[in-house]
Amino acid sequence: MDSHTDKDQLNQSGTLFIGSLAGVSIRLHFTFVILFIVLVFSSSGSPLDQGLYMLALFASVLIHEAGHAFASSRFKIRTQEIIMFPVGGVARLSKQPTNREELWISLAGPAANLLVAGSLLVWRVFHEGMGKTEILLRNPEEDLLVKSILANILLALLNLLPAYPMDGGKALRGFLSIFRPDPEAARLASIIGRGIAVALGMIGLLAGHYLLAFVAVFVYFGAAQENAVKIGQSLLEGVKVQQAMVTEFESLSHGATVGDAAKRLIATSQQDFPVVSGDQVVGLLSRNLLLGAMAESGPDTYVAGAMNRDFLRLHPDADLVEALPSIAAAGACGLVMDEDKLLGMLTSENLTEFLVLRRIGAEGRKLDKEDEEE
Fold first, then answer.
1. In terms of Cα–Cα distance, which of 338, 339, 349, 325 is closest to 3?
2. Could you tell me the residue ranges of all domains in the chain?
3. How many CA atoms lie within 13 A of 56 on its CB side?
4. What pLDDT sits at residue 345?
5. Greatest CA separation for the chain
6. Could you tell me where the beta strands, DSSP code E, fall in the chain?
7. What whole-number distance in Å separates Cα of residue 93 and Cα of residue 82?
8. Confidence at residue 132, expressed as pLDDT on a 0 to 100 scale
């Protein structure tokens, strides 16, 4: 888990916290709801059958992401959070894997789906015989297990497309990085991914395969987002956490009330408040936790009962790139501490501002270099 509690995670834009698996936070993206509506209205089956199929699809995506998490753990990289999409998921890792590590981590997801599909197929053949299984494979709508087999195969094949941010696209980026610098490799992989997405979208719309068009939209925007992340990482190479942290901020006493915190929230631009007892930091009160406590218990409740005690701690000399996965989520915040001494705060907002300034500076230096060459 990162610096936010489960209650705080419920309010993250576009996703819903649904639980944890082996210490990994699992979130459901709103596109699952869209897919459910599409399946219900585009199929002649009953809503119950479609609901069961959605559960099977959810399990397939979860298995896919579990494959990634298992592979990353083999490289001693912890999976902090998984966001579930209908055609795969996004695993937020504790650090950026190397190109070789990313290749194996990317392939582990499709491999897990193919393993599940193969196991279910063997079980079906063993119990029903090859003849009936062949008939069911030709008419998958009649059998949920066969639909699940085909869904796992389709999920594996879709993720092997060389389209960023699918697993095949990440493998492509790893391959391109052998010949190109990482930012350029990411940009090329993103361009290829968006090109494939446009082609898939046109095919889906012209052929009436709206699910394929839906997948194309996901791939297109995912490719653009992944490219932005990679650009951000390249701009932060060699930068320490202390260079980007906020050093002027207000804190709250553990004896303060939620009403006191609400006044600070209105009077300042701060969204997150360290909670201290003397010189010791005992918790972190975010805007979402503050509002939730205000709604549930009223302004007279103490912040000590609403704050997050398991907040994210960052060392000032840590590489900012390694902190990026924990801070990148909207509304995330980490406290920069040297042992027990609070030095500053790092939020997604000031990290974005820092990135903008770094990018402007990099473009300015590039223009100066071009002028000198001329």
1. 325
2. 14-160, 164-235, 241-356
3. 20
4. 92
5. 75
6. 15-21, 24-29, 79-85, 88-93, 252-253, 272-277, 280-286, 312-314, 333-338, 341-347
7. 9
8. 61
> For the chain, how many helices (H) and strands (E)?
14, 10
Quote the mean pLDDT of the chain: 79
Residue type for 82, please?
I
Q: Regarding beta strands 272-277 and 252-253, do their DSSP bridges make them parallel or antiparallel, or are they unpaired?
A: parallel
The closest of 225, 249, 246 to 354, measured between CA atoms, is 246
- Residue 167: what pLDDT? 85
Considering the entire predicted model, what is its pTM?
0.59
pLDDT (average), residues 251-263: 91
Confidence (pLDDT) at 328: 63
C-alpha to C-alpha distance for 339 and 287, rounded to whole angstroms: 26
Q: What angle do CA 177, 236, 79 make, to 5 degrees?
A: 70
Cα(267)–Cα(256) distance, rounded to whole angstroms?
16
> 């194996």: which residue's tokens?
104
Structure confidence at residue 256 (pLDDT):
92
The CATH class that applies to domain 241-356 reads alpha beta
The secondary element (H helix, E strand) that includes residue 320 is helix 320-327
DSSP state at residue 95: S
- Percent pLDDT > 90 in the chain is 11
Q: Which amino acid belongs to residue 16? A: L
| Residue 18 burial by Cβ neighbours in a 10 Å radius (0-12, 13-18, 19+) | middle
- Measured in whole angstroms, the distance separating CA 282 from the mean position of its chain's CA atoms is 28
Residue 263 has a pLDDT of 92
**How far, in Å, CA of 87 to CA of 96, rounded?**
23
Give the best-scoring range by mean pLDDT among 88-97, 138-147, 282-291: 282-291
Angle at 279 between CA 277 and CA 283, to 5 degrees: 45
pLDDT greater than 60 at residue 50: yes
Quick check: 187 and 164 in contact, CB under 8 A?
no
Q: For position 39, what pLDDT does the model report?
A: 64
Question: Given 3-state DSSP classes, what are the helix, strand and coil percentages for the chain, each rounded to the nearest 5?
Answer: 60, 15, 25
